[in-house]
Amino acid sequence: MNSKSFKKHLFGKWEPYLGEFVYGGIDGCVTTFAVVAGSVGAGLDSAVIIILGFANLLADGFAMSVGAYLSTKTEKDNYRKYKNRELESDKQDPNYKKVRISQVFKSLGYKEQALNVVVDQVTKDSDRWIDIVLKEEMKIIPENKSPLKIGGVTYFSFILIGIIPLLIYVIDFIFPIKGNLFIIASVLTGLGFLIIGWLKAYVNNTRIPKGIIETLALGAIAAIVAYFIGDFLESIIV
Predict the structure, then answer these.
(1) Residue 8 burial (CB count, 10 A)
(2) CA–CA separation, 92 and 167 (whole Å)
(3) What is the rounded average pLDDT of the residues 29-56?
(4) Mean pLDDT, residues 28-34 taken together
(5) pLDDT tens sequence across 123-146
(6) Closest CA relative to residue 150, chosen from 77, 81, 67
(7) Using the 8-state DSSP alphabet, how is residue 44 labeled?
């Protein structure tokens, strides 16, 4: 079983949306951990950290999912607009699609007999010739994924992974825990980054150690910057 078929077997119909899950999860974990780190740097109470963390989690996650939804929907609408334009031109001129496909394949190096064979084959399919024209000339590729599912998966992963830095503070609020909550949150977040980094490498077919290290580094940098900014603001304001 090759990598592609294994992914499909493992994740089923959601396999095409793994990319959205990964990047939604990375963004959720990074931004929420940054909020926690900044709040700790500013010396804020755990209850305030929980409020700020969940406000960020729900609001930023929603904003990101809406952006993903609108972006995909715009791509689909754009493709539909140009496709309809090509179809309308084809209705008005019976030779239109052959001329268009001939232009495309000439630019790709096809000549004479080979060109005629390709043009005849491609133009037999009412959708295929349009897809080729839009892809080769306008660099527009049809988006087959559902905008609604893309938005939903993005929001779900943003919350699912993004809640990790807040878990220990929620638990401590209900059942007080002895120990440094920020260190525990950092360890849990590191595990979250490890998982999402592995999945990122898996989705992109890149080296797993590289994917994990990149994700961990991104989270660490965001947390360090947020912590010291919080500390700095606390020192000049309070």
Answers:
(1) 14
(2) 63
(3) 90
(4) 89
(5) 877 777 888 888 887 777 777 888
(6) 67
(7) -
